[in-house]
């Protein structure tokens, strides 16, 4: 007797599959264009911009997974929102600190880095829109609809 597969739910790996493909393409494209524009610093900048997108995207997916487990599949819980929003604040602070630190590094081309990060942000927004469009969220919950009885149906009580 074989075991039944577990119901499909949010997992970190499934949420990162398509973005990882796009991140890989952005890393290759950013590295090649960066190298052509400003040599090795441009290549490093393109790779670093794509890597930051991967890290920040993974942090979001991990925070959602942790929040789901912490709230036992209750996405309406304030704890769920606290965990996810807390991770977003952490990402914002981390991004600002990294940007300030990286701005003064001689091995980084700030223009290539900036363009790569902007492309990554737009790509992230595209994936957010796709996820939002595919989400199946009920308009109302726990509502029992009235049962109608067809008067012409056989066996209908009158």
Q: Describe it for me?
A:
- By secondary structure, the protein is mainly alpha-helical.
- 70% of the residues lie in helices and 0% in strands.
- It has helices at residues 12-70, 78-103, 110-134.
- Helix 1 (12-70) packs across helix 2 and helix 1 packs across helix 3.
- The protein is elongated and about 80 Å long.
- It starts with 11 loop residues before the first helix and ends in a 24-residue tail after the last helix.
Task: Decide which structural class fits the backbone.
Answer: mainly alpha
Largest sheet: none
Rounded mean pLDDT is 81
Low-pLDDT segments, ≥5 res: 1-8
Return Rg in Å. 23 Å
Q: Can you tell me the overall shape?
A: elongated
Helix segment count? 3
User: In what range is the share of β-strand residues?
Assistant: under 5%
The total strand number stands at 0
Fraction of helical residues: 55-70%
Helices and strands, in order, run as: HHH
Terminus-to-terminus distance: 49 Å
Features of the shown structure:
158 residues, mainly alpha, disordered N terminus
